[in-house]
Write a structure and sequence with these properties.
The chain is of the alpha/beta class. Helices cover 40% and strands 19% of the residues.
């Protein structure tokens, strides 16, 4: 199976067991993270198709982490936790979880629930645009590739995430605070205006014919930035 699974769990023994289970079920790309910070980095840097999320992590709790992931991704999330009360389960779903499995669990049930969610997801994916295409550049969301005038251009993770977010919301003006929160996952960091500006500048160097007079990544004076889709091509 081509889907990528991320296991967020701090018990190494359980990670190994889940990896063996998923490998046996045919999943070829399995990632792991043992802390919330590591998990967020994995979600930002890789296309993940489903997450198994423990609630009790060393640097945060899974409920808060789920909420943070939801701000940048709609990836299906299954809680896999020893927290068994009804309040815990309701909290998990209210934070954006798609399923909730309590420990100890039946491995076959975990595999079955993963497959059921991915099956539903596969049926909806064709309805979602997988790329943004203009006369000058194409951004492939699922492959994390930027093609400019037919040639692939190096696009680091944050630049890709910023461009992807703006391509998915064309003609909408976003402030620096909004862009920083959506792409970097925080809005309280000092220096965010300079960070966003630098990334916008780098993207203009890559996608614009004349970066000083951008056709795509435009300034909305005093408000922020927007991506114009005037030259967008219809999906083929």
């Amino acid at each position: 199976m081509n889907e990528r699974i991320l296991i967020i769990e701090d018990e190494v023994g359980l990670i190994k067991m889940l990896k063996r289970l998923l490998d046996k079920e045919g999943f070829q790309e399995i990632y792991q993270a043992e802390s919330g910070a590591e998990a967020l980095k994995k979600v930002q840097e890789h296309r993940i198709d489903l997450i198994l999320l423990d609630v009790m992590l060393p640097d945060t709790n899974g409920f808060d982490l789920c909420q943070q992931i939801r701000e940048i991704s709609d990836v299906p999330i299954i809680f896999l936790t020893a927290r068994t009360t009804d309040i815990d389960k309701l909290t998990g779903f209210s934070m954006g979880g798609d399923d909730y499995i309590t420990k100890p669990f039946n491995p076959l049930e975990v595999a079955a629930r993963i497959k059921a969610i991915l099956h539903r997801q596969r049926k909806t994916i064709p309805e979602i645009a997988q790329k943004f295409q203009t006369k000058r550049f194409v951004l492939h969301y699922d492959q994390a590739r930027l093609i400019v005038e037919g040639k692939e251009v190096n696009c680091p993770a944050k630049e890709f995430q910023l461009l992807k977010f703006m391509c998915q919301h064309p003609n909408q003006v976003f402030s620096v605070d909004q862009l920083y929160e959506k792409v970097w996952g925080d809005y309280s960091i000092v220096g965010k205006e300079n960070t966003v500006m630098v990334h916008i500048s780098r993207l203009r160097q890559k996608i614009e014919k004349d970066p000083k007079h951008p056709e795509y990544l435009k300034n909305a004076r005093g408000l922020g930035y927007m991506l114009s889709n005037e030259n967008q091509r219809s999906p083929q």
